[in-house]
Amino acid sequence: MSRSFVVLGGSGDLTGRLLLPSLARLYDTGVLPEGSELLAVAQEEWDDDAYRSWARDRLAAHAGDLSRETHERLVDRLRYVQGDVTDAADLRAALARVDGEPVVYLALPHTLFRPTLTALAEVGLPEGARVVVEKPFGADQADARALNELLHRLLPEEAVFRVDHFLAKQTVLNILGLRFANRVFEPIWNAAHVERVDIVADETLGLEGRAGYYDQAGALRDMVQNHLLQLLAIVAMEPPLAVDAHSLPARKADVLRAVQPPADVRTGSVRGRYTAGTAAGRALPRYADEEGVDPARQTETYAEVTVTVDNWRWAGVPFRLRTGKALGADRQEIVVRFRPVPHLPFLDAEPEPDLLRLSLSPDAIALEVNLNGAGDPFDLEREVLAARLAPHDLPAYGLLLRELLDGDTTLSISDVEAEESWRIVEPVLAAWAASEVPLLDYPAGSAGPAA
Ligand code: BG6
What we know:
alpha/beta, Rossmann fold, 2 domains, 10-stranded mixed sheet, 18 strands, binds 6-O-phosphono-beta-D-glucopyranose
């Protein structure tokens, strides 16, 4: 059976930057069946030709490694309909134009999810349909609950894909291999041996013209509530019975239930906003002066939150989640810091404890250990045991779309996980909204707020 994609928000940044290039790749590798079609729905007064010419530009910009013929094979399949995605009549008309079992993709800002799903619930979907919802999954826990209710009115949970592309990153998948296909790590993967865990996603990029979305979201909703808590879940969860759609989301949900926000948000979180500066060689204006930003919203571009995982395995171990835009260096990694050895039989040595670095960009795993050096036989030196991981043949979005086409929800976020993640960040959001935590300035290109 051919699948038709109905992309709501078909002229948006996400569609042009990530979806179309990934779909072109899936055509190229034969994953997307020949008869599949893509109908884009958006506000612009375009026809099919105007849409195709926009799509050609986007493919040239974001899938330059694929041939023109490959681009054209996808472009030939694209159709466009102008419509309001929150209007039931427009959605009904759009759905009537596609054959087969539709995959309805909400490539929209999170503020539009609720009115769109409300309209979609009024129209209904044929059997075999699937719905894909982007991140962040709503604006808070109440919104996430309302979205889940609407989705469950439309389709069974197995037909719902809540996207988090971090789950399809090579290193993240490799954490599963490292932890559960080897004997050496799991016995020391607990509070008796691990002192702390840092989960970091620092970016040199600034707002990049995304004010319409980002100024409503901020760093906590954009990165922490979804990507960083998913990384935490993969690192901290109990071993699943199998890596499948039943066990993986269930084990992640279990561990998220155990995560507690900081007891005192004033000491357990930091929020910041960049000022003018130069990050990775590019001059950036003050965030508050970026086009489309409402300075009164006090949107943060840097968020740091330290949580605990209150269960048998992790009690007492801090997990620090940190992310920011316009920082001095790109760094996406999880650092597991082990406790010092109980007795050190080397005189005058104070070596650093072992560190395991799981780097997401580039994909690499490195274990920093202490070994005997070349000079005095009993001197210690720091050595790194490292593995550079071969990239997956599909980028993260391509891999997720392939899973989606297979109907496999192993890498999708479940309803419970989505709501639990909001429970964790909600007290932080509330304290920040009430200005209980100061919004600190940091110059673009710096290491972040000097807290
Ligand atoms: C997106 C966020 O989900 O993830 C962006 O909206 C962020 O703000 C991006 O830049 C980071 O993902 P990646 O794959 O580029 O590291």
